[in-house]
Amino acid sequence: MKLPVKNLKGEQVGEVEMPADIFEAPVSHPLMHQALLRQNANAHLGTHSVLTRAEVNRTTKKLFRQKGTGRARQGSMRAPHWRGGGVAFGPHPHSYEQDMPKKMRRAAVRSALSQKLTDQEIIVIDKFELSAPKTRELITALKALGVTRGLLVLPGRDTVVENSARNVDGVKTLFAAYLNIRDIFKYDQMVVSLDALNKIQEWLG
């Protein structure tokens, strides 16, 4: 499939043939769902923790004598049913990490890119060429391209574009080698430069 190549003024300056093995791959929703769950799980730090009755700092003195008071026997104020006592069966630090074979991860990204192309949400530009790190200049370019919430895919480090996009709401810059399921579907459009497209082809082709 061919897509028009535009400049930052929104003018068409050519065409490019999108690699069929990447952008016309079979779309597998279960595979993309699994990849998204894995990414979200691996981003979960799992640092939540509570104190058990063995860890809470309270007196170990017996509250009152065992018999003769007419009350239920109590051995410690550290028990979970007392206010300020330990927590029973509460969360403790652990890893949420999920594994997924590399071939499946890359197949999921191909599937997502194919879906994105089918939905006509990929915009190819000749290059990101800004005169200076200016937010206003980038906003003007994105309006010309018809971008509302955009993922700007860069071939590599570009401080001018990155600094220009830093304060633009609903816009994120991402290196081509770091493409992932969550970012692809989080944004309405993907703006890809020709150099970034070559990087994607080297990685997923």
Mean pLDDT: 93
Radius of gyration: 27 Å
Task: Report the principal-axis shape.
Answer: elongated
CATH T-level fold name of the largest domain: Ribosomal Protein L4, Chain: A
Domains, number: 2
CATH architecture of the largest domain: 3-Layer(aba) Sandwich
- The total count of helices amounts to 7
The largest β sheet comes out as: 6 strands, mixed
Helix and strand run = EEHHHEHEHEHEH
Annotated CATH homologous superfamily of the largest domain: Ribosomal protein L4/L1
Query: In angstroms, what separates the terminal alpha carbons?
Result: 16 Å
Instruction: Provide the structure class.
Output: alpha/beta
Strand order across the largest sheet: 2-1-3-6-4-5
* DSSP strand count: 6
Task: State which percent range the strand residues make up.
Answer: 5-15%
Oligomer classification: single chain
CATH top level class name of the largest domain: Alpha Beta
In the predicted model, the low-confidence regions spanning at least 5 consecutive residues are none
Fraction of helical residues: 25-40%
